[in-house]
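Exercise 7. Given the components listed, write out the predicted structure of the assembled complex. Treat all entries as one system.
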Amino acid sequence: MKNLELSIDNVFKFVSKDSIFDLKDKVINIIKSLHDKTGRGNDFLGWVNHPSLISEEEISKIEKISSEIKNNNIEFFVVIGIGGSYLGTKAVYDALSDNFIQLKKDHGHPKLLFAGHNIGEDYLSELLDILDNKKYALAVISKSGTTLEPAIGFRILRKHLIKQAGEAKAKDLIIAITDPVKGILRAMVGKTISNSFEIPPDIGGRYSVFTNVGLVPLAVAGFDIRTFIKGAKDMQKQTGPDIPFEENPAAIYAATRYSLNKTHKKIEILANFENRLHYLAEWWKQLYAESEGKVGKGIYPTSVDFTTDLHSMGQYIQEGERSIFETIISVKKTKRKMVIPEEETDEDKLNYLAGKRIDEVNKMAEKGTIKAHVDGGVPNIHIELPELNEYYLGQLMYFFEIACGTSGYLLEINPFNQPGVEEYKKNMFALLGKP
Ligand code: PA5
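Answer.
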């Protein structure tokens, strides 16, 4: 199997190679401390070795329930969750699905729909319209079991399901994915919910895509979770504590972004040239924003979809304040092939492209963009995936997780808590008169 490839050649115009490689002992010690669980927030480091610890029994349990759901002719599987309890699933689902999956009739697996990630009255009403008279099942995912957005979504959807399928059947069509012992959701298991899966207490939401949080809905949607885990496991090895800095892509990525930040590059833009990766960037933004953004520190993570956003954000990236750097995720091979046809009259003057693959044009746009942005003062980090599949997404997501933990420790903060998220909740609950 090939690996994702990281290139930092386009940052050396802005930070010296030495300033990055001088960090190597520090970074390797940090990676050791993540594995030894000796650093800040060490009660939330279960994710570091998790991919290699997932048992055959756990995978079989997931596969069993997903084939039961499929055999039940379920059309939609509604994933109710917010933040780390839904973004990883949405990222993989979108990255690996047909672009127009929701319009496909005989897809062969239940389609995923998402709820509980907003407080949208219209959103929920319109979702119920879609689910009226359809066969569907619910996964309610919340580690704490107390988050308001999914709790409201679950109450509304469960009521709808009961009305449609009856109380006993509805109970069997609901899966709770939550803490093994704590929380309101866990207390509902056995009473109003028949099926449940556990979220390890030592794995926080944004690091949980390789737990039941991501694996259950992805298996139900028909994806090969064994290969997804294998990708993560291989990246776990490739970024392990015994791997030299020069051979560890996550160590190099973390050291590079830290060095850029030291030169007042305050914003990292994750860019893709493959629109299926839009939600991968949303997942990445949560991972880095909640992990790094605290005590007045952290690189602000944002994202763009190219070439679409070259016609909007591209202007700022090219000529705006020079406090940004860019990380591009490039996909080498497309799933499909399409060639630009020759036209006899050449009315639209496109014959100079005739015979070229669409992806060849996209790749030239990518090359041209990187050169323009680097020339314009934007350092560029490049990550190339051989193709979009379960294996390389497993690699990529584990790579970002371990690099994020490393980045947090380089900033001397705890990357595994999110105290700032509580502030809006306090105000909202006071305004709502929560007892
Ligand atoms: O990363 C995190 O821990 C958070 O973003 C959570 O995933 C998010 O707040 C949802 O929490 P819960 O799963 O407890 O409902």
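Discussion: Residues 82-85, 142-144, 147, 150, 204-206, 290, 418 surround 5-phosphoarabinonic acid (CB under 6 Å). Strands lie at 5-7, 76-80, 111-115, 136-141, 174-178, 195-198, 267-272, 300-305, 324-333, 380-387.
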